[in-house]
Each structure stands twice: as C-alpha cells, then as structure tokens.
Design brief:
The structure holds 3 protein chains of 3 kinds. Chain A is α/β, with parallel strands linked by helices. Chain A has 10 helices and 15 strands. In chain A, a hairpin with a 6-residue loop joins strand 8 and strand 9. In chain A, helix 2 crosses helix 9 and helix 5 crosses helix 9. The two termini of chain B are 16 Å apart. In chain B, 41% of the residues are buried. Chain B has 2 helices and no strands. In chain C, helix 1 packs antiparallel against helix 2, helix 2 packs parallel to helix 14 and helix 6 packs antiparallel against helix 7. The chains are: A alpha/beta, B mainly alpha, C mainly alpha. Bound molecules: zinc ion (ZN). The site of zinc ion has 4 residues of chain A, from loops.
Chain lengths: 387, 51, 437
C-alpha cells in the first residue's frame, strides 16, 4: 500500500470516529422523548392536526392536553417551547398538566409548541443538549432545544422571509420561528401550518385567552414582563400590579408593537377573538456576555460577568449574587398565568376559568419545581405521553 | 417531502460528490485532504438527516 | 471565573500560534485552537470532555446554508466565465467606452462588483472577473501595483454589496435582526466608495495602448456569444428572487442555492461553447476549499468559544470598553479580526458588538452594514490575507506584498472613516433602511 493511500485511510478513520461520536448524541437528541403524565385534570388529549389536516404526519403535529372543568366557562390556550431554548414555560405547563384540576372552563395546553425546535440545537452557541430537574424520586430529564425549527423539517430558508399575510420582510431564519409565523396558513411553510392550526383551534373553540411562555436575556429591554396588545392591556396591567403587591415580584407590561408582525401577542389578537399574552421571564443563560454555557448556568442563572455588568447598570432586571434561578422563573410564569385567568374571569364572569392544584410563585420557589413532577414509572401507562 | 427540499438534498449530494472526488484525487497535500473531509462531514450528516 | 476563561483563551491563542509556527494552514490552526479550547475547558467540565466531539460536530453546522450559497454561486459564475460571457462584457466595455475613461472605469467597477455581490465573497470577484478586468486596466494604462490595489478594494466592496453579504447574514442570524433593509444602506456607500477608488487609482493614464491594440490583445470570445446569452442566466436568477417578492404567497420558496443552480443550468444550456460541468464544478470546489473549510472551522471555534465562556468574555470586554475608545479601536480590531478569523470574526466579535451597540440605541441594520464594509479590508492582512494574495496574483504584480499593502492606504483610510461615521450616525442614516424595504 502506498503512503498516500495510508494517510487517507488514517484521516478518514480519525475524522470518521470523531464524527460518529459527535453525531450520535445529536441524532439521539432529535429522537428522544420527554414523558409527561396526564394528571387528574386532563380529560382528553387531542392532536393539533385535528384543526389543520395539512399538519398530519409531520414534525409539527403535537399533543394538546385538554383540561375541561365540571362547569362550562371560558377557554384558554397555553403554550410553551415556542422557543425551546427558553424552558421555564415548559416546566410550568408540565406541572400544570400533571397536577392541576379545572373547576370551571377549559384549558388547552401545548407543551412543545415548536416540536421541531425542541428537537433542534443551535449550532455555534454551545448549548447543552439536556438539563435535569431533581425530584423526590429522581431526576427528570428535559431536552434543551432551539429557537427555530430544524432544517430537517423545513428546508430551505427563503433569502428573506415574507410574513403571511402582512407581507412584512423578516429575517430568513424567521420562517422557522413559530413566534414570527403567526397567524399562518394551511398550505404554507410547516411552521406556518403549526401556527395556523393553533389559530383554527382558538377560532373554532372560541378560546378567550392565549398565553405564550418565553424567556428573554437580562440585557434585552423586553424581559421580565407581560407583552400585551391594546385589547389585553388592562388585564395584563391588573395582573402585573397584583403579583407585585401580593407576591412581591416585578413583571411589568410591555405594549405589543403594532408594526412588528408574526408574533403571537400581535396576530392572535388580530386574527381571532382571543386575548393574547406573552410572558417573558429573564434567562441569563441566553445573554451574550456570560461565562461557560453550562447546565448550572441554565438552572441557577448565576454569572460573574452579568453581576459585574449589573453593577454598571447595563441590565434590564435587578441582578445579584443569587442569580436568577429556574424555580423563580417558573414560579413567575405560574403566578402570572393564574393571575391573568383570575383578572379575565373577574371581568367576564360568564366566561370565567377556575382551577386548583397548580402551585404559585412562593410555593415553587420554596419547594422547587421538581416537587410537582410525578414518576412516569409509577403512573398508569395509559396516562403517560411522550413529547 | 416537498420537491424543492429534495432538490436541496440533491445539490448537497452533488457538492459532496465533487469534494469526495477531489479528496480521492488529491495526491500530495495532507492539508487539503483534511479540509475536504471536514467540509464533507456536515454535508453528509445533513444528507443522512442526522442534523 | 474570569481567570478560568482567560486561561482557556490563552490556551487557544497558544495552540493557534503553535500550529502557525509549524507551518500549518490558517484553517488547521483555527481547528487546533478550537480543539485546544475544548480540551482546556474539559478540565473544569465547561464543557465535559464527553461532550467535546458533539460540540465539534455541531460547530460544523452554523454556516451550512452559507456554504451551499457559496458553492452554487461559484459554480454558476464559473460557468458564465467559461462560456466566454465575461470576456464578452469586458470587450464590449473597451469597445464602447475606451475613449471615455471615467465611464470605462465605472463599468469595470460594476463588472467587478457583480460576482462578489451575488455570492457574498469578494474572492469570487477576483477569481471570476479579476483577470479580464486587470487586463482591461492594463490596456488602459493603469500600472500593475495600482491594478492590484484597485481590484482588492473593489472586490472587498463587492463582498459587502447587496444582495448577498455574508457578514451581514451571519450577524443577522446571530442577533435575530431581520436580513432586510440593506439594499441601499449598503448599495449607496459601496457605489460611492467604489467610484472614489477606481478614480483614485485609474484616472491617470500611464502608458497603455490605443483602442485597436487593446481589442486585438483581448482574449477571443467564442463565436456565437451574444448579449442575451450573457443576460439570460442572470435574468433567471433575478427572476426567481424577484418573483418571491412580488408573489410571496404564490411562489414556492426556492432559496439562494437553488436559484443559483437554476441560473447555472441556464448558463450551461445557452453557452455557445460546450462546457464540461463536472470538471468545472470539481475545479471550482477545489478553489473554494479554503473558504468552505474556513466556515467549518470557524463554526467549530465559535461553538467551543461559546461553550467555554471565551465568547462571553469578548462580549463582556466589549461592553465594558468606553464607547469613544471602542469606536477608535474598531478601525483596528475589525480588519485584524478578519485577517485572523475571516468570516468567523463576524460571529465571534460581531455578534456581541452589534448586540451591544443595538442596546445603546444605535440602528442595528446600519451598524451591521457599516461593519460589513470595514471587515473585507482585513482580507489583505496576514495570516490569511485571502483576497490580498489573490489580487496580487491575478494582476501580475511582481513587487513585495508590503508594497502592495502600502498602496492601499488612502481608500483604506476613507473606507474606515466612512464606516465608523456610519456607525456613530446610524440613527440619522436609518432612512436608507426605510428606502430599502
Ligand atoms: Zn422567546
């Protein structure tokens, strides 16, 4: 065998082995599932494609947990993992599905709204693939996803993404971002079909309130807040003031800009009779000037660089040595959601929504969110869903 | 899978083919051999629908 | 934590320098830095060693689509070049404009701008049209050192010119700012700076030949070449681009790589000369290898830098620098980072920088445009000096590389000043973005 051939074989072998070692975890991440137990409040589990047949058989089709009360009332649609790298909403809604009981009205819960994104990673940004939350019975493992759907499910990107139907030009990646493709269309891009199906659900079921749970950098001005369009602003303001007075945390209201298209807090309200709210909890992990992108940073939100910048008044939230732990972020989402439902019910008694068994801010911060997750091994297998 | 997406897998495969041919016919430069392989890796993983 | 991250950074710099000292290529040196950083980080489990292969493989992906754009666009331009289309245009320019020096220079500038504008890579301008343009300049009496300098600067502007600007695409993708509003924001400064450059180098006639001699010395154009054969492939490309903008909900999404592929097919079909596409594609891919590999290793470096906190440290340093000092430093940091990291500089320094400048109220789109005009200058700087070396090569300049660099000084200075002023006054220039929408 000649030297050149040997060199080539060695190179192929070395690069091949490293590639395999790197590719297998990525493949597993995309094909992994997270078990969720349909708790006592879940009355049925439907598919998003029930509202848009063009979604059937695609990565965009997801489970929607329906929680119907004994009494009819108003309806709410709650979604997390619109951006799957902002996981506090997912933890909050999973606790809701596993624990809450609806007494009046109906909840529709989509845990991994952008399922393709939750199975995607963000190349170049060095994220971990998973993170674990401790519970009394062991660890619960969550996929850490990306803001955008995977190109494996939607390829190619346009050179510019033109928003349907408003024709606003957006970045080419935003065609894969389910917080830019609202209100969607039945035969558009896969992500447009996802948002279209959700719009159809809200229109057909006459959903009153929609909540979209996110996280935002501490150095981003729109963080730690409720984003609401004009029609939702009163309820958002009341909710914000109440949590501040009663539970002692800040969560201001940001108006939804009228000229920035494709966002849930803009289009849901414009294309359905639903009141939309988008919740942002701070997530230091996503800030640019942080140390290593570790699971620890994702969970505890403690970072020396951010602490130093906070002292120079460069952050948009208060920040100290305690960081910004996950439990606090999840707790905020939970309390703000409950408070929005309460304020809505107060104003619309005939459409009120009442639930119990869902923890609030103080309880989650004290007990840790893990306390509210149940062991799928001990649950009735028929009630376990894989997201 | 949409027709256009299939075209993309074909375009990617075409470029992998060109890179592979060049790798195979590269006689001297070990540097270039390594670079060809590095460029092939992500394109191949896309064709295999890994990433 | 700062110390820990700083140590990893030092390790990466040492690995890069050691690899360079061992005469490894820039691409392999960047790879060495990425791997060293990953191993350094593993000592503190940032990230754990078991995750290192995954980070390295995942890091190969940020620019996958850019690589496809680049490859298909280059094959397209190579087919146009091979068919004689470019020689045809340059000949036409000489025939029509030879006695109108300013007009001839401007047309040559536009010809040089097009390949880079379409592919986002200034080196494409040099590779595809550099040789015939340099020849035309030679006949017009522009000396070789000035030819090399002119080609380099205009090719750099071509990289920044719309519609494809890879720096801006990388920055927009990394900062979630829409890649729109660049047409005039980039187009106007590029045309003004380009005009200044070609006039500065080319206005004075030093020797050269008359029109008849020049035409006789130009390479032959294949028989049967005509304007429509040159234009049809470009019309195909722009037609697909424009169709989506006019009927966005009726046109399927083609994407730039497919649009270039379609244009390449048309160019191949209408070529008066038979073209062996496979051989041409292989040769094109071979020429592109350093660029494609750069995108791969830079993605890996970026992934490791972020995972280990080094990118965060850069970002932190930038945000902590006093603003006035930062503006002044940009004139040096931006080109030097290009010289070391090529496109990777946009990702590693640019993303945190734009993020920061945006947060203090500057107009992000204008800032990105300004930076993307400044960056290509660095392509004349070692260790990569990618476009610089190519410019010297195609224009037959025999002097030292240093003397070529010195010849760049005035356009370099003007471009630097313009782009820094664009950053400082970005809010006032936001009308350019509105025009472009
Ligand atoms: Zn979000």
């Amino acid at each position: 065998m000649n030297k050149e051939r040997t060199v080539k074989i060695v190179l192929v072998a070395v690069i091949g082995v490293v590639t395999a070692l790197g590719a297998v975890p990525l493949y597993r991440h995309r094909h992994s599932t997270m078990p969720v137990i349909a708790g006592p409040g879940v009355t049925k589990v439907i598919k998003l494609s029930d509202y848009a047949p063009t979604l059937k058989g695609t990565m965009g089709d997801i489970d929607v947990f329906v929680m119907e009360g004994k009494e009819p009332g108003g309806k709410a649609f709650l979604m997390s993992d619109t951006h799957a790298n902002e996981p506090a909403g997912l933890l909050a809604l999973m606790a809701l599905v596993e624990n809450a009981v609806v007494d009046k009205g109906t909840l529709y819960v989509a845990l991994t709204f952008n399922a393709s994104g939750s199975r995607n990673t963000k190349p170049g940004d060095g994220y971990p693939l998973y993170f674990d939350i401790p519970t009394e019975w062991g660890q619960v493992r969550f996929r850490f996803g990306n803001r955008d759907a995977s190109p494996l499910d939607q390829w190619p990107d346009p050179d510019v993404y033109i928003h349907y139907p408003e024709r606003q030009a957006l970045s080419y990646v935003d065609g894969r971002n389910t917080n830019r493709t609202w209100p969607g269309r039945p035969n558009g891009l896969l992500m447009e079909r996802v948002t279209f199906a959700a719009m159809e659900l809200m229109r057909k079921e006459k959903v009153d309130v929609a909540m979209d749970f996110h996280g935002a950098e501490t150095m981003f001005p729109v963080t730690n807040c409720i984003v609401a369009p004009q029609k939702s602003a009163k309820i958002a303001t009341m909710a914000s003031m109440t949590v501040k007075a009663m539970e002692g945390f800040d969560n201001h209201v940001e108006p939804s800009p009228g000229n920035f298209r494709g966002l849930s807090h803009r289009e849901i309200g414009d294309y359905a009779d639903t009141l939309p709210f988008l919740m942002e909890a701070p997530i230091p992990f996503l800030d640019q000037p942080t140390g290593p992108k570790t699971v620890k940073l994702l969970i505890d939100g403690k970072d020396d660089f951010l602490l130093s910048l906070s002292k120079k008044k460069k952050l948009f939230v208060s920040y100290d040595e305690t960081g910004w732990p996950m439990d606090k972020r999840v707790g905020q989402h939970a309390s703000v959601a409950l408070e929005i439902l309460k304020q809505f019910s107060k104003k619309n008694p005939e459409r009120s929504i009442k639930l119990s068994g869902f923890p609030r801010y103080a309880e989650i911060v004290q007990n840790g969110i893990g306390k509210y997750f149940h062991d799928p091994a001990k649950a009735d297998p028929k009630s376990v869903y894989f997201e | 899978m949409p027709v256009i997406t299939i075209f993309y897998y074909l375009i990617t495969a075409f470029i992998v083919g060109m890179l592979g041919w060049n790798f195979w016919h590269e006689k001297k430069s070990v540097n270039d051999m390594i670079l060809y392989l590095l460029v092939i890796v992500p394109l191949l993983l896309r064709i295999l629908r890994v990433k | 934590m700062t110390l820990q991250v700083l140590l990893i950074l030092i390790l990466m710099v040492v690995a890069y320098a050691a690899a360079k000292a061992k005469k490894l290529s820039v691409e392999l040196s960047i790879l060495a830095a990425a791997v060293a950083g990953g191993i350094g980080g593993a000592f503190l489990k940032t990230p754990p060693i078991g995750e290192l292969p995954r980070h390295l493989v995942e890091g190969m992906f940020p620019y996958l689509d850019v690589m496809l754009v680049f490859s298909t666009a280059s094959i397209f331009m190579a087919i146009v070049g091979e068919s004689g289309g470019i020689n045809y245009i340059v000949r036409g320019t000489i025939r029509t404009f030879y006695n109108m020096r300013v007009a001839a220079l401007l047309v040559l500038m536009l010809i040089t701008l097009i390949p880079g504008a379409l592919t986002g890579a200034g080196s494409m301008s040099i590779l595809v049209v550099g040789a015939p343009v340099a020849m035309a300049l030679k006949f017009m009496g522009v000396p070789e050192r000035k030819r090399a300098a002119l080609l380099f600067i205009v090719a750099g502007l071509a990289a920044a010119a719309p519609p494809v600007n890879i720096y801006a695409m990388i920055l927009c993708a990394g900062t979630a700012i829409p890649y729109v509003g660049f047409t005039w924001t980039l187009g106007i400064p590029v045309l003004i700076l380009g005009t200044f450059t070609v006039l500065f180098y080319g206005l004075k006639k030093e020797g050269g030949m008359n029109k008849a001699e020049a035409l006789a010395a130009m390479p032959e154009v294949p028989a049967g070449m005509s304007w429509w054969r040159v234009l049809l492939p470009f019309l195909t490309f722009f037609g697909m681009v424009v169709a989506y903008r006019i009927w966005p909900f009726g046109t399927p999404i083609f994407g730039l790589p497919l649009e270039f592929t379609a244009a390449a097919l048309v160019a191949w079909l209408v070529s008066p000369k038979k073209i062996d596409v496979l051989t041409l594609s292989r040769e094109t891919v071979k020429r592109l290898l350093p660029l494609l590999a750069t995108m791969i290793v830079v993605g890996m470096l970026q992934q490791i830098m972020t995972a280990t906190g080094v990118r965060g440290l850069f970002s932190f340093a930038m945000i902590s620098t006093p603003l006035i000092l930062l503006y002044i430093l940009l004139a040096v940091i931006i080109p030097v980072s290009e010289g070391v990291l090529t496109f990777g500089a946009a990702a590693i320094l640019g993303i945190p920088l734009v993020w920061f400048l945006n947060s203090i109220g500057l107009h992000a789109t204008v800032v990105i445009a300004a930076l993307s005009i400044l960056w290509p200058l660095g392509s004349a700087l070692p260790p990569t000096a990618l476009m610089g070396r190519l410019s010297v090569m195609v224009s037959d300049y025999k002097g030292t590389y240093g003397s070529f660099l010195r010849k760049l000084w005035l356009p370099w200075l003007v471009i630097t000043v313009v782009s820094i002023l664009m950053i400082i006054y970005s809010a006032k220039l936001s009308f350019l973005v509105r025009w472009s929408m």
